[in-house]
């Protein structure tokens, strides 16, 4: 049996360092908003032959250029008028040959602000709802830890599991201009769902062992350690299966979804870690 609770301060310190580093990265670099949130133009073009990216960048000095899977190019710009668009198409055709427009999307600042506000509300609603649900689910467990503390600790682990991928995106945005878009929001919500499920499995085993072993009469630290070890194989095996699938998708899947998959991949690893090495140790500290 692994002495997880005995070494809880090691695991909590590691989590604290990662969370602090993520907060510093977000504070220092910020998150680079995509056109979904900041507004702008998304322009997808198909060339007869794949153009040199450096040469293409000369046509759009301030644009973000992303190669697609089928030789297409996605160009993101802050603004592009109809006149500028027609002129760019003429110049690109003269330089690279036939150019076909696959998609053109123009999102205004007002729409972007509305999406950003809705995303924030979605996060807040999910966090509050999950915390209330966990507190309600464990309402019959009052000794030696009050039921509402299970909900608060679940909320803390969710912040932990979302801050670290967000910190990663802050660094990626600073170094490689990776943007935060609606795909990132969806990925974070997926991570939150997976994380809370994993945490509840561990908490449920603690609740069951408390019932079997006599509640307050049991050694709580020992009981929690036993419960975590009982669910350890299940948590690791489930996460490992998902991680292997995500790795295959990351390396073999469409390039346009790589950062979406990366977010879920990192969130899955962090969420599994927090459900085993963060949630239960916090429970023993806050009883």
From TrEMBL:
Keywords, alphabetical: Cell inner membrane, Cell membrane, Membrane, Protein transport, Translocation, Transmembrane, Transmembrane helix, Transport
Pfam families referenced in this protein's UniProt entry, alphabetically: Sec_GG (PF07549), SecD_SecF_C (PF02355)
InterPro entries: SecD/SecF_arch_bac (IPR022813), SecD/SecF_bac (IPR022645), SecD/SecF_CS (IPR022646), SecD_SecF_C (IPR048634), SecF_bac (IPR005665), SSD (IPR000731)
Localization in the cell: Cell membrane
Any one GO molecular function term: protein-transporting ATPase activity
Keyword match Plastid: no
Keyword Lipoprotein: no
Residues annotated as domain SSD: 119-285
Gene Ontology cellular component terms for the protein in this record: plasma membrane
Annotated transmembrane regions: 9-29, 119-138, 150-176, 182-203, 236-253, 259-286
Superkingdom of the organism of origin: Bacteria
One GO biological process term: intracellular protein transmembrane transport
Membrane topology (UniProt): Multi-pass membrane protein
Entry-linked NCBIfam families: transloc_SecF (TIGR00966)
Subunit structure: Forms a complex with SecD. Part of the essential Sec protein translocation apparatus which comprises SecA, SecYEG and auxiliary proteins SecDF. Other proteins may also be involved.
Function noted in UniProt: Part of the Sec protein translocase complex. Interacts with the SecYEG preprotein conducting channel. SecDF uses the proton motive force (PMF) to complete protein translocation after the ATP-dependent function of SecA.
Family: Belongs to the SecD/SecF family. SecF subfamily.
Protein name as annotated: Protein-export membrane protein SecF
Species of provenance: Candidatus Giovannonibacteria bacterium GW2011_GWB1_47_6b
Name of the gene: secF
């Amino acid at each position: 049996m692994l002495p997880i609770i005995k070494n809880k301060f090691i695991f909590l310190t590691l989590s604290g360092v990662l969370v602090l580093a993520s907060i510093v990265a977000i504070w220092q670099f910020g998150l680079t908003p995509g056109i979904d949130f900041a507004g702008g133009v998304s322009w997808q073009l198909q060339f007869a032959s794949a153009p040199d990216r450096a040469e293409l960048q000369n046509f759009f000095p301030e644009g973000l250029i992303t190669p697609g899977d089928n030789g297409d190019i996605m160009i993101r710009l802050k603004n592009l008028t109809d006149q500028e668009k027609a002129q760019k198409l003429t110049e690109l055709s003269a330089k690279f040959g036939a150019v076909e427009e696959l998609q053109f999307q123009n999102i205004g600042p007002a729409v972007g602000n509305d999406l950003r506000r809705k995303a924030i509300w979605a996060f807040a609603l999910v966090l509050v709802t999950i915390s209330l649900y966990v507190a309600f689910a464990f309402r019959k467990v009052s000794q030696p830890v009050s039921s509402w503390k299970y909900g608060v600790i679940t909320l803390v682990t969710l912040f932990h599991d979302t801050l670290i991928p967000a910190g990663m995106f802050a660094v990626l945005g600073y170094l490689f201009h990776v943007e935060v878009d609606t795909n990132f929001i969806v990925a974070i919500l997926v991570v939150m769902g997976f994380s809370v499920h994993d945490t509840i499995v561990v908490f449920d085993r603690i609740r069951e062992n408390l019932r079997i072993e006599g509640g307050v009469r049991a050694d709580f630290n020992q009981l929690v350690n036993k419960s975590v070890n009982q669910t350890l194989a299940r948590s690791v095996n489930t996460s490992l299966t998902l991680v292997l699938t995500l790795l295959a998708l990351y390396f073999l899947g469409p390039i346009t979804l790589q950062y979406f998959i990366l977010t879920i991949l990192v969130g899955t690893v962090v969420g599994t870690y927090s459900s085993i090495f963060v949630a239960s140790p916090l429970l023993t500290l806050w009883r």
